Amino acid sequence: MLLHVTIVSLLLVAVNCDSGSYILPDEETKDQQWVFCSKPTDGDSIFNYSIDALNSTAGTINFSKFKGKPILLVNVATYCGSAFEYPLYNQLIDKFGDKLALIAFPSNNFANQEPSADPNEIYNAIKYVRPGGGFVPKFPLTVRIDVNGEKRHPIYSFLKRSCPSTRTRIIDQFYLNYREINSRDIRWNFEKFLLHPKTGQPWKRYDQLFTPNVIIPDIEQLLKEN
Ligand SMILES: *[C@@H]1O[C@H](CO)[C@@H](O)[C@H](O)[C@H]1NC(C)=O
Ligand SMILES: *[C@@H]1O[C@H](CO)[C@@H](O)[C@H](O)[C@H]1NC(C)=O
Ligand SMILES: *[C@@H]1O[C@H](CO)[C@@H](O)[C@H](O)[C@H]1NC(C)=O
Question: According to the UniProt entry, where is the signal peptide (predicted)?
Answer without folding.
Answer: 1-17
